[in-house]
């Protein structure tokens, strides 16, 4: 049952949302629910901005989730975060007690409290070249999805890099392609020619990563609306005759 002193704070709202999402995805694996919740409590609870995609990646790696399961957990977390506090199930106080006990038993060492590793330096973008219709359409959709993420750079540039880096780690792109796409996104998506070498499948992966980043910035409902609007606006571009934006979905 919930703690008798639990209050509807921002932190407890996130706790309820995370616990609810984990309980749904790991419905038949209660030990995984507990382990992932304790991971969140230890590594994410006190962060001013919860980067959900990073948390999902750690949970997925620890529990061998495949891509559909990763996406299910990601979306479930975003959906629950959008719910009012009162509509979310309470989290068990026993989990908080276990987290506090583990922290008390293992004082943080210098290594444990070290700053997280910096994001990998993206591969330099290739020289400018002719822009394909597919690259032009992807660039237009991508810049629209990037806009709410980049808006956060005014107050926290490092957070934007972290959100994008974690979002692109969810893709099936090879290492070099992932780094090139990340470099394009970190530069604001200003050079569509950089996307010309990518295949249709890779362009869809890029849009998926940017959609996840938008979810982190806006929440899933607003991100869904933004994606639909982005596709609709791209349909009016001349390049849409050759490359319909729906191919990115």
Task: Give the helix/strand layout.
Blueprint: H1 10-25, H2 30-43, H3 52-63, H4 67-81, H5 93-105, H6 133-151, H7 157-168, H8 175-186, H9 200-218, H10 220-234
User: Per DSSP, what share of the residues sits in E-state strands of 2 or more residues?
Assistant: under 5%
Low-confidence segments, given as residue ranges, are 1-5, 107-117
Class inferred from helices and paired strands: mainly alpha
* Bulk shape: elongated
Distance between the termini: 41 Å
Q: Total strand count, please?
A: 0
Biggest sheet layout: none
- Measured as a percent range, the helix fraction is 55-70%
Give, in order, the helices and strands: HHHHHHHHHH
Computed Rg: 20 Å
Domain count, please report it.
Answer: 2
- Specify the number of helices: 10
Mean pLDDT: 83
Please sum up the structure shown.
This protein is mainly alpha-helical and 249 residues long. The chain is built from ten helices and no strands.
Notable features of this structure?
elongated; 2 domains; 0% strand; mainly alpha
Could you characterize what this model shows?
The protein is 59% helix and 0% strand. By secondary structure, it is mostly helical. The chain folds into 2 domains: 10-105, no CATH class; 133-248, no CATH class. The N and C termini lie far apart (41 Å).
């Amino acid at each position: 049952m919930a703690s008798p002193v639990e209050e509807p704070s921002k932190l407890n709202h996130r706790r309820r949302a995370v616990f609810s999402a984990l309980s749904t995805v790991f419905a038949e694996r209660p030990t995984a629910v507990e382990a992932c919740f304790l991971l969140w409590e230890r590594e994410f609870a006190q962060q001013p901005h919860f980067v959900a995609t990073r948390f999902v990646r750690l949970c997925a790696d620890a529990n061998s989730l495949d891509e559909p399961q990763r996406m299910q957990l990601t979306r479930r977390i975003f959906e629950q975060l959008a719910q009012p506090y009162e509509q979310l199930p309470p989290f068990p106080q026993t989990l908080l007690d276990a987290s506090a006990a583990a922290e008390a038993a293992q004082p943080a060492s210098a290594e444990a409290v070290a700053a997280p590793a910096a994001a990998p330096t993206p591969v330099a973008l290739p020289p400018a070249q002719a822009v394909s219709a597919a690259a032009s359409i992807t660039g237009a959709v991508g810049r629209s999805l990037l806009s709410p993420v980049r808006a956060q750079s005014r107050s926290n540039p490092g957070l934007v890099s972290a959100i994008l880096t974690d979002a692109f780690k969810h893709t099936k792109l090879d290492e070099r392609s992932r780094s090139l796409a990340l470099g394009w996104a970190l530069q604001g998506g200003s050079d569509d020619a950089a996307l010309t070498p990518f295949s249709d499948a890779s362009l869809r992966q890029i849009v998926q990563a940017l959609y996840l980043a938008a979810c982190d910035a806006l929440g899933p409902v607003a991100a869904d609306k933004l994606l639909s609007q982005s596709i609709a606006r791209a349909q009016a571009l001349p390049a849409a005759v050759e490359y319909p934006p729906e191919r990115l979905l």
